[in-house]
Design a protein that fits this description.
The protein is α+β, with helices and mostly antiparallel strands. The chain contains two helices and four strands; from the N terminus they run βββαβα. The strands form two sheets. It has a two-stranded parallel ribbon.
Amino acid sequence: MDVILVGLEGSPSMGVHVTSSDPARHGRPQWPDGTDELSPGSGIFIEELEAELAARGVPLPRATGITHQLPGHDDEVNRAAVAALIEPAGG
C-alpha cells in the first residue's frame, strides 16, 4: 500500500520540515504579539508518529507540508510539491 503524509508546515504538532517553538516557554508556542517562531524540524505529532513507526520497523511515508501559513508561501510551488508527492511511487 502506498501511503503519503501531508502536514502543515510551521505547526508545532503537524510541521513536517518546519515547526514553531518558543524557547522561553520550553517549546510550547505562545507568543504575546501573536507571531510564531519558526524553526527547522518536525512537530510533536510527526516526531511521535515517526518514533512509533520506527519502533515497529515501518519507515515514515513520503511526506510534505502545506506552506500557506509560512512567509514567502507560493500557491503554485505548494501545489506542485503536493502533486509530485501524490504521484505513485516509481512514476
